[in-house]
Specification:
The chain has one domain: NAD(P)-binding Rossmann-like Domain (Rossmann fold, 3-Layer(aba) Sandwich). The protein is built from six helices and seven strands; from the N terminus they run E-H-E-E-H-E-H-H-E-H-E-H-E. The longest helix is centred in the middle third of the chain and has 21 residues. Helix content is 37%, strand content 13%. It is α/β, with parallel strands linked by helices. Strand 6, helix 6 and strand 7 form a beta-alpha-beta unit. 43% of the residues are buried. It is globular, with a radius of gyration of 16 Å. The site of NADPH dihydro-nicotinamide-adenine-dinucleotide phosphate has 29 residues, from helix 1.
Amino acid sequence: MLITGASRGLGLALARHYAGAGWRVIACTRADTPPPDENGLEWRRLDVASPASIAELAAGLAGTPLDLVINNAGIRGDVDGLATLDADDFIEVMRVNALAPLLVARALLPNLRAGGGQIIANISSRAGSIAEGMIGDDDGDYAYRCSKAALNMATAKLALDLKPDCITVLALHPGWVRTDMGGIEAEIPVSDSAAALQGLIDRATLADSGSFQAFDGRPIAW
Ligand code: NDP
């Protein structure tokens, strides 16, 4: 399996969980040097905001079958609402959270087609749900919400397009998780979220493709 944004937070926890379950894990990070003491993981450099970096990763993995790709790398951008909405910030969040998962999925399609389980898991957010995202959550993170809503559409469209290849595509909400992004007041320890997401991904079949689920298996309305 391959995961993006594995330097810390949920990405690192997922990478550790999969490695602990005996998977070969290709952990991608944009940093030149991966975190120390992570010997069970195979590190590759990937800045998901850079199409050249994505192409370089794919070229280096030519001929390597992949059962699972997790698009986890994400950024939040400005959170202070309409008044501080900044064009460059907005575009960068869209680039990392919505466009990059599509480019990564497309670049690694040959690897997924050669793999066994064939799943693309996009780490989305309930904040991107038009139906539920503003219930009990009035944060002014326009860019983040729009990017995750776009990622959700990308998930649904990819699921349709990749059905003939029997590739399952999921949008997953990890919960409010204690990471740098989630903050120390977040409800869920990162290891618990990773374990729950791993369970969901491992149980997923083609019948689940194009769905949007929370870490606890609850379907989320788009
Ligand atoms: P963190 O901020 O803790 O970690 C983000 C990760 O993404 C880091 O590894 C970071 O790398 C990486 N990243 C950011 N930009 C890039 C880039 N251009 N190329 C490669 N890697 C990049 O966030 P979380 O672990 O909390 O979030 C993981 C995912 O879960 C995100 O998609 C997020 O939107 C989603 N999510 C999180 C929630 C939460 O409560 N925490 C709630 C809902 C969704 P680096 O160390 O180099 O900066």
